[in-house]
Design brief:
The complex is a heterodimer of chains A (130) and B (631).
Chain A (H helix, E strand, L loop, with lengths): L1 H7 L6 E5 L3 H13 L3 E5 L2 H10 L4 E5 L7 H10 L5 E6 L3 H9 L4 E4 L4 H13 L1
Parallel strand pairs in A: 1-2, 1-3, 3-4, 4-5
Helix pairs in contact in A: 3-4
Chain B lengths: L1 E8 L9 E8 L2 E9 L5 H16 L5 H9 L4 H4 L1 E9 L4 E7 L2 E7 L2 E4 L18 E4 L5 E6 L6 H9 L4 H12 L6 E8 L5 H4 L5 H10 L7 H14 L14 E2 L7 E2 L6 E5 L2 H14 E2 L2 H16 L5 E5 L3 E6 L3 H11 L4 E4 L2 E7 L1 E2 L1 H10 L4 H58 L3 H28 L8 E3 H11 L1 H6 L3 E5 L4 E3 L2 H22 L5 E7 L4 E6 L6 H4 L19 H12 L3 E6 L8 E6 L9
Parallel strand pairs in B: 21-23
Antiparallel strand pairs in B: 1-10, 2-3, 3-4, 4-5, 5-8, 6-7, 6-9, 9-10, 11-12, 13-15, 14-19, 15-16, 16-18, 17-18, 20-22, 23-24, 24-26, 25-26
Helix pairs in contact in B: 4-5, 7-8, 9-10, 10-11, 13-14, 15-17, 17-19
Classes of the chains: A alpha/beta (130), B alpha+beta (631).
Chain lengths: 130, 631
């Protein structure tokens, strides 16, 4: 699956912001998405993610939900409140019940942990063409 | 009944002497006390010794255990520590009951054979009370009890006994002191010659039974058959050689059980229960040992007899106890009577009308018996109520356990979420590297090592959770702070994810019982705080745990906003929950309370924080001195 990503560079030139408080997971995810052609900026929490979005052009955002300082849910609400209309993907281990609340708060999609790169790339691609 | 002699030799002056000895005639026998306050030559030590003697001389005597408990409360005892011998020559039975704690030696010459009495860890006030065990030993006429402090060399008596046993007590005291006294400590020696008194025949009579029955007749549901009582009292007047002890003061207790009916019954000095089948017998006998103290051999005899009686069809065995005597009453059966005679002695069994009465001499703890009786076995009716309640509690416990396991699975999911995600990403990263530039041996080794570390972490999480409900590995005592840390470790992921700051303060202490039960209580309380934080979107959630080793208590305070007063009154009721539908069972706090009451013999209460503090809830848990398997 990764070979397909590499060969096709399906996210070529796409500006992404990824936020997760786990540095190893964040680094690896960024590496995989970069290999798929994206320009990835990383943040440790929701507040940093919002700051990056304010500074740089952003096509899609990946937000972990449970983070210190500012959680993903709060960040989504702030971004939508500001009129941010690009794709927001919540990355979570939440149950279906909780996931519905995440979608209701303004996220376009949610993806469950553990994250499969191919699924994530497909979701970002769908958002791009939608 | 006995001749007492003692002598105290101070190290320097009598004001600074911590050794003491005294005897006192009580309603139930001759009390003998020999003590040694830690230290010597210091007036403080002498003052403490005087306070203890004053307490022993002036306090109302109920039992050795009550006296020991009272002595612990004498100011200074818990700071200094006191080595002590506390003995009682029984007025009814040829027995010596005793506690022997710390550096005091005691011997009994049983028909000229020297027997050293069992020392226990001491001293009083320093060693935990649960280490203080009660003993009884048979005494024969002319047996000598010899007790001395560590101001006399330990082997003095064994060296003397062959040649000096014929001396009278004052002479023997002087001989022991002159032969064995150390020059650098206070010294005390006491000798008692038991002259007889009490007999196993007299045990079959119950001196204050008449009074008890008279009062019980006024009670709605008295349980001692009147016919037996009449028979006993007439027999008592014939066989007793010693004066009967006066009746224990009787108090009536009013109980208002859940049904709303009033019960007024039973006296302050008796217990107990009807035993209906084997499983309940096991239950009852386990409770019985909360109020009855005896050695393991006697206990085994009583338990085996109880079970044998039930198995042979005596479905209604009734147990009575006062502070010195346990009675089993049951339907007569030749086999059972023979068995009782073999186990407890011929004199222990009598037949009154159609009932066999077996009297066994043991000690009981009246305070506990009162408490137990109040909570459980008030009457036949309340016993039946208890059975129903027990079944209900069993069902509730099962439901609560299932709910707790659900919470636990949620916690495991949170604990595993991160390492599982990382493991998945690492695998995909390796694939990517292989495709891009190939992977060398060093990278494979690093990958394997990192992955195995993650897997080991996940495995240890599972072990932690598996042990959560297990009680088999629990010891008799556990450290409370250690249990708190284990629970916080289990909930670390959820606490971190919700940015909850937890602090723990105070010196730890140990309590008896199953650690896993306290884990369940803490897990419930922390989960409740966490849910309240989330629901109310508290911006800086905090939980503070405070240990207090002085009164063996633990409090948990959060800043989740507190609880409405009307709700506060009900939070420990079963099935009561304020959580959203589907999120709470209403059993967590109920089971926590049950565990605190039944297993830790303590309490749990919740209040809102003071107006001066951040709004929140404080839950206080107090642990009793004894805890142990009761479920």
């Amino acid at each position: 699956m990764t070979s397909d990503i590499q060969e096709e560079r399906p996210l070529n030139g796409l500006n992404l912001v990824c936020a997760d408080d786990e540095p190893i997971a964040l680094t690896i995810l960024a590496e995989i998405l970069t290999a798929a052609g994206a320009i990835v900026r990383t943040a440790k929490n929701g507040a940093q993610a919002i700051e990056l979005i304010h500074k740089h052009p952003t096509d899609a955002v990946l937000l972990d939900i449970q983070m210190p300082v500012m959680d993903g849910l709060t960040a989504i609400q702030i971004l939508r409140g500001e009129g941010f209309d690009k794709q927001i993907i919540a990355v979570t281990a939440a149950s279906k019940h909780e996931a519905q609340a995440i979608l209701d708060s303004g996220a376009d999609e949610y993806i469950s942990k553990p994250v499969l790169a191919a699924d994530l790339v497909a979701i970002i691609q769908q958002g791009r063409t939608a | 009944m006995a001749e007492f002699a003692s002598e105290v030799i101070p190290f320097s002056s009598s004001e600074g002497c911590g050794d003491f000895a005294l005897s006192r005639q009580t309603d139930v026998g001759l009390l003998v006390v020999v003590g040694d306050v830690a230290g010597h030559g210091d007036p403080v030590v002498g003052e403490l010794a005087n306070r203890i003697m004053e307490y022993i001389s002036q306090s109302e005597f109920h039992s050795l255990s009550a006296l020991l408990q009272g002595m612990r409360q004498v100011p200074g005892v818990s700071e200094r520590g006191v080595s002590i011998f506390l003995g009682l020559f029984d007025i009814h039975l040829p027995l010596l009951h005793y506690y022997l704690l710390g550096d005091v030696r005691a011997y009994l010459t049983q028909r000229n054979r020297l027997k050293r009495l069992a020392n226990q860890e001491g001293p009083l006030g320093i060693a935990p009370p649960e280490l203080n065990h009660f003993h009884s030993i048979k005494a024969h006429p002319l047996d000598l009890l010899i007790v001395y402090s560590d101001g006399i060399q330990a082997d003095t008596l064994p060296k003397l006994i062959d040649t000096k046993a014929h001396l009278n007590p004052p002479e023997l005291v002087r001989e022991i002191i002159s032969s064995g006294r150390s020059e650098d400590d206070d010294a005390v020696c006491a000798v008692v010659r038991f002259k007889g008194g009490g007999s196993y025949r007299s045990e079959s009579a119950s001196p204050n039974l008449k009074d008890r029955v008279a009062h019980n007749k006024r009670a709605a549901t008295a349980v001692i058959p009147e016919t037996q009582a009449n028979s006993e009292t007439s027999e008592a007047s014939e066989v007793h050689e010693t004066p009967l002890s006066p009746a224990v003061p009787i108090k009536y207790v009013e109980i208002r059980p859940a049904t709303g009916a009033d019960f007024k019954l039973l006296t302050e000095d008796q217990l107990l229960a009807n035993v209906r089948d084997v499983s309940q017998a096991r239950l009852l006998s386990s409770l019985l040992w909360e109020v009855v103290e005896c050695d393991s051999y006697t206990r085994a005899r009583i338990e085996s007899y109880l079970l044998e009686a039930i198995e042979r069809g005596s479905h209604s065995v009734e147990l009575f106890a006062d502070n010195l005597r346990l009675q089993l009453q049951l339907k007569p059966d030749k086999h059972l009577i023979e068995l009782a005679m073999r186990l407890f002695g011929t004199e222990s069994v009598r037949l009154v009308d159609d009932r066999a009465v077996v009297s066994i001499h043991v000690a009981t703890d009246l305070d506990r018996s009162t408490r137990l009786r109040l909570s459980r076995f008030m009457s036949q009716q309340s016993y039946l109520d208890y059975s129903d309640q027990h079944r209900r509690e069993g069902l509730l416990a099962q439901q609560a356990k299932l709910a707790a396991m659900g919470e636990m699975i949620g916690a495991i999911a949170h604990q595993w979420r991160q390492p599982l995600n990382e493991l998945g990403l690492r695998i995909q990263q390796l694939q990517l590297h292989q495709h891009n530039h190939g992977v060398d041996t060093a990278e494979i080794d690093q990958y394997a090592a990192d992955s195995l570390t993650l897997i080991a972490h996940m495995a240890s999480t599972i072990d932690d959770f598996r042990d959560f409900f297990s009680t088999h590995q629990d010891g008799e005592e556990f450290d409370v702070a250690q249990v708190i840390r284990e629970v916080l470790r289990l909930q670390a992921a959820q606490l971190n994810n919700n940015n909850i700051v937890v602090t723990l303060d105070g010196q730890s202490f140990s309590i008896p019982g199953h650690a896993s039960y306290l884990k369940q209580v803490l897990f419930n309380l922390i989960s409740n705080s966490k849910d309240a934080f989330k629901e109310r979107r508290i911006s800086a959630p905090k939980i503070h745990l405070q240990l207090n080793p002085i009164d063996h208590s633990l409090s948990l305070k959060d800043n989740a906003g507190g609880v409405e007063p009307a709700t506060l009154e009900r939070i420990y009721e079963p099935y009561y929950t304020q959580k959203e539908h589907g999120k709470g069972t209403g059993l967590g706090l109920y089971m926590s309370r049950m565990l605190m009451l039944d297993h830790f013999h303590g309490s749990i209460t919740s209040t809102n924080t003071d107006a001066s503090e951040e709004a929140g809830l404080i839950t206080r848990m107090k642990f009793g001195e004894s805890g142990g398997p009761s479920r």
